[in-house]
Amino acid sequence: MNTAILEAKNIEKWYGQTAALRDVSLTIGRGETVAVTGPSGCGKSTLLHCLSGILRPDQGSVHFQQRDLTTESEAARSRLRRTAFGVLFQFGQIVPELTSIENVTLPLQLGGLRYRDAAVRAQRLLDRLGIGGLGGKRPGEMSGGQQQRVALARALVTEPEVLFADEPTGALDSLAGEQVMVELVRLAREHGTTVLVVTHSAQVAAYADREIAMRDGRVETGGRVTISGEAR
Amino acid sequence: MSTTHSLLGILASQGIRHGYELKREHDRRLLGVRPLAFGQMYTTLARMLRNGYIAEAEHQRVSGPDRVAYRLTTEGRAELDQWLSQAVQPATHVSAQLFVKVIVALLVAPDEEAARSFLATQRTVHLERMRELTRVKTGGGATVTELAAADYLLNHLDADLRWMATTLDRIGQLRSEVLA
């Protein structure tokens, strides 16, 4: 692994009296695909939300490159999520009233790109994902697997540095899930995108280069790796 | 794994074949299955001849020993059809090494740590094998047969992992029962 792109140090997150994350430290290298695994309720989704700036941890720090996200404003973190981060959830992410192409162009237009230029990039990505012919379809007219590939296109169209995926195949049958993961890994490799995928499935975790296993809000194994030949 | 029925299937689909052709087709079509050793194949062919499932179709002598080609008989076709129509019976007894190792570790170690440690190490080994198999999918260019063979192994490894996770969750109770 070359350089660290994301680093969490001793982060804690509480919901009332319940600890969701306890003293979590980990390092993610640039270009790595890492799976965060563990049983339901172990804190893996909360961890993803803290690393992607959706949630602010109660203690500890989260560094993306040289920036400490825990000290950034909500507006700055929101900007980061539109530009440097892509997020893929289990389902319900694409806007039902918009067509596939409109859904995928949305992040680009929010970034100021004209629709015509955004649509060219969106179409190219839909083509790569094997759903180029579905640009005019709305989510309700597509299968679950096709909808998730549209969501993947939307997450990747801004060419983010890091893609966060939370149970990306959780709502799909095994073959549709396989197609989504194969495309996700292929596109991430081509663009050098770092991927953090949260999953309870060992078969999804097997797409990753390594695993960070969580249990009861703590990292059980895999949090620390060697960066640039230096033990951390 | 029934070598007899694999060979009957190849003969049924391809007609008359020599021994070395049967081995080549077996290894090519049944990816992920242990390659057929020549010794095992000729022993199996001899048994199939005795049972009347196959018959010698022709002898050729180019140089060295005779080369024998085999054909499927009516009895062989009936045996193949019956085998295909029967469901595979799930195993009656647990014979997996994983299960036995956990129980023995709980029996002999002073606490449950040896079993925990074994399960954690085994998880790492299983996941590494699953990563290798998953690269068949992400590498591009795999045939559907190669994907099906990888999926078969992946799903079995996944089942092992789920069993390991559940066993870890109740390792304390399991130890109490094993030592009782």
What is the element layout, followed by pairings?
The complex is a heterodimer of chains A (232) and B (180).
Chain A: E1 4-15, E2 18-29, E3 33-37, H1 44-51, E4 59-64, E5 67-68, H2 74-83, E6 85-88, H3 100-110, H4 115-128, H5 144-156, E7 162-166, H6 174-191, E8 194-199, H7 202-205, E9 210-215, E10 218-221
Parallel strand pairs in A: 3-8, 3-9, 6-7, 7-8
Antiparallel strand pairs in A: 1-2, 1-4, 4-5, 9-10
Chain B: H1 3-14, E1 17-18, H2 19-29, H3 38-50, E2 54-60, E3 67-72, H4 74-85, H5 97-108, H6 113-138, H7 144-169, H8 171-179
Antiparallel strand pairs in B: 1-3, 2-3
Helix pairs in contact in B: 1-2, 1-4, 5-6, 6-7
Folded structure, characterized:
- The complex is a heterodimer of chains A (232) and B (180).
- Chain A has 232 residues and is an alpha/beta fold.
- Helix content of chain A is 34%, strand content 27%.
- In chain A, helix 3 (100-110) crosses helix 4 (115-128), helix 3 (100-110) runs parallel beside helix 5 (144-156) and helix 5 (144-156) packs parallel to helix 6 (174-191).
- Chain A is globular.
- Chain A starts with a strand and ends in an 11-residue tail after the last strand.
- The relative contact order of chain A is 0.21.
- A three-stranded antiparallel β-sheet of chain B has the order 1-3-2.
- Chain B is mainly α and 180 residues long.
- The mean pLDDT of chain B is 89.
- The interface between A and B is medium-sized, with 15 and 17 residues.
